[in-house]
Request: fold
Amino acid sequence: MTTTHCPYCALQCAMSLESGPDGRLAARPAPFPTNRGGLCRKGWTSAELLTVPDRLTRPLLRERRGGELVETDWDTALDHVAERLASLRAESGPDAVAVFGGGGLTNEKSYALGKFARLALASSQIDYNGRFCMSSAAAAARAPSAWTGACPSP
Reply:
């Protein structure tokens, strides 16, 4: 069993990952102030995404002729991304490239993403997806009936 947090939203609900009866990984809730020992539907099903048949596990690049996606190695794929970002910046300036983070980023990951956008890409175009997506969750957390401070027993 591995204790971790849900990757989906800014609440960062606690969860544990463990092998299910069929040997596949399963997510289970773990007590924590934000989730009080529960998980939403996305959290409960998060481990299922690891085994869907059409999940991409290797990089793909589009062929110049024909436009088909073909499997490639990571070095080639990352070189392609770096070259494309450099050409976009040269053509249209650094703000032609933007960075969009998600509410599931930890503080440390958000900091690193901001540094990457400002220093590596020299772009001022960054959004963390927290302004709109998480405003309802923040309002609910401040509601008088929200968390009382005690975690339920597992």
